[in-house]
Amino acid sequence: MKSAMSSFSEDDIRRAAEVREWLVKEVTNKKEELDKLRNTLLIVDSLLKKTSFITASNLESSATNVGDKIVPEIHSGQEREMKTRSDSAAELASNNNTRNDNQVMEIKSLKRAKDNFLISNAEFTSTYVKIPLVDDVNLNINTPPFRSFFINRILEGMKTKDKEKIQKGEINEFEILEYEVNSDENGKIKSVTISNYREKERLNEILNTATWVFTRMLEKGN
Fold first, then answer.
1. Is 122 part of a structural domain of the chain?
2. Which of 69, 132, 161, 209 is an S-S bond match for 191, by CB 3.0 to 4.6 Å?
3. In the predicted model, what is the mean pLDDT of the chain?
4. In the chain, how many domains are there?
5. pTM (two decimals)
6. Which residues, 6 or more positions from 172, have their beta carbon under 8 angstroms from its beta carbon?
7. 4 within domain boundaries
8. Is residue 3 in some structural domain?
9. Are 140 and 127 in contact (CB under 8 A)?
10. Does residue 33 fall inside a structural domain?
């Protein structure tokens, strides 16, 4: 053993120590990245269990196919509906701000898991959440899976459940979830505002889904 050790110079040992330090750092970084990926997978699996029976492996293809089939047929009607809904949501948010001046606004940064790229600094109170995209994030409302999944499945799904609760007398009509998509003339998304989410679980689902959807849209753009 001594003869084997004597065959290495001090420089060899120093370089080996540096390599070991680098390897330890890489293992730590990979572990953190793996933890983030696992957390994201748990979020997606949770969403799938709540919204459909589709498997995670088929999510992108099915969401894209649904969007491709539905959007051309309902595009004009949906735009009119979204404009009406946007007006009512904006008015509702304005009224909420007026009635709740003492509400505490919180901010949560939405970041891409693999590199912590900042997508939005979401602002939320107990009555609404606003997700403004940062200036250098250029995403279009027609890029999947924004309409097919985030709008049609998640937000519209929550709204449908609220309508059922209204019919059962569990909530009042003014408590129904409303949302507004703010975009420019080219379809670039500026922000998404959701009023009357009401439940902490819904808030987490909205923020987690938005992060996942915007990440997928960024990948398609790249």
1. yes
2. 132
3. 78
4. 1
5. 0.57
6. 166
7. no
8. no
9. no
10. no
* Cis amide linkage into residue 144, ω under 30° from 0: no
| β-strand partners of 118 | 111
Whether the pLDDT of residue 15 is over 70: the answer is yes
The two tokens of residue 69 are 């089939």
What percent of the chain clears pLDDT 90, i.e. is strictly above it? 51
Pick 28 or 101 by higher pLDDT: 28
Contacts of 217 (CB under 8 A, 6+ apart): 139, 140, 143, 144, 145, 146
Q: What does the pLDDT read at residue 91?
A: 54
pLDDT, one tens digit per residue, over 153-190 is: 999 999 999 999 999 999 999 999 999 999 999 999 99
- Tokens matching residue 188: 């670039």
- Token pair 């912590």 in the structure block, residue: 116
Give me the count of residues in the chain.
Answer: 222
SS (H, E, C) the chain: CHHHHHCCCHHHHHHHHHHHHHHHHHHHHHHHHHHHHHHHHHHHHHHHHHHCCCCHHHHHHHHHHHHHHHHHHHHHHHHHHHHHHHHHHHHHHHHHHHHCCCCCCEEEEEECCCCCCEEEEEEECCCEEEEEECCCCCCECCCCCHHHHHHHHHHHHHHHHHHHHHHCCCCCHHHCCEEEEEECCCCEEEEEEEECCCCHHHHHHHHHHHHHHHHHHHHHHC
Q: Provide the pLDDT for residue 6.
A: 54
- Encoded tokens for 81: 């509906």
Distance between alpha carbon 183 and the CA centroid of its chain, in Å? 17
pLDDT of res. 97: 46
